[in-house]
């Protein structure tokens, strides 16, 4: 196999990186997916089989929503769910969906991408806040053809932290360990003494944002911004 021809040559030039807060709330709820657009998805299936060959016996072939993909199993996944309920067990998954090679550390996120492919109404591109950020980027110098754009919803990360702090399971664990760890004890007491306000009180201070990177004769230019809620 030729790295330049079979791998780099198979890439169309567009890469998408998605982060998603996988429910329920956990300390490492953020999962990641990378999508690599392919010049010829059908031709790349043979290349993918060659890449998988050394480890194929350890991979589990699955299907969801008409898309085939592979899951790298974790033998201690069930044990981890019982002993560490607030820690997400990664479930590495990958496969070709449409004209993209998708690589995710969460099977649920991979399946969410498949859902969005089959139902465009679920896609981020159709969301009003994304359209607003994309519109503002397009009006900036070089925004008609940037080399990179980003979109973020800071409220999603804060929501995960809020639900963790408000969850009874979190408080039970903190209470059990409070006597052995001063930091856990202080946090447990703080949550007991100071009830959290409704999430809407926090949410109103968090607005979507974005960024862009352009290249011109003077170099690379990166611009990041956040909106302001009314």
Structure description:
The protein has 230 residues and is an alpha+beta fold. The strands form two sheets. It has a six-stranded antiparallel sheet with strand order 1-2-6-5-4-3, with helices on both faces. It has a three-stranded antiparallel sheet with strand order 7-8-9, with helices on one face. The chain starts with a helix and ends with a strand. The mean pLDDT is 91.
Task: Record the SSE blueprint.
Layout: H1 3-7, E1 11-21, E2 30-38, H2 41-52, E3 60-64, E4 67-71, H3 77-83, E5 93-97, E6 100-104, H4 107-118, H5 128-138, E7 148-152, H6 154-166, H7 168-177, H8 182-193, H9 199-203, E8 209-216, E9 219-226
Antiparallel strand pairs: 1-2, 2-6, 3-4, 4-5, 5-6, 7-8, 8-9
Helix pairs in contact: 7-8
| Mean pLDDT level | 91
Number of helices: 9
> Numbering strands along the chain, what is their spatial order in the largest sheet?
1-2-6-5-4-3
- Indicate the radius of gyration in whole angstroms: 21 Å
- Uncertain segments: none
Shape annotation: globular
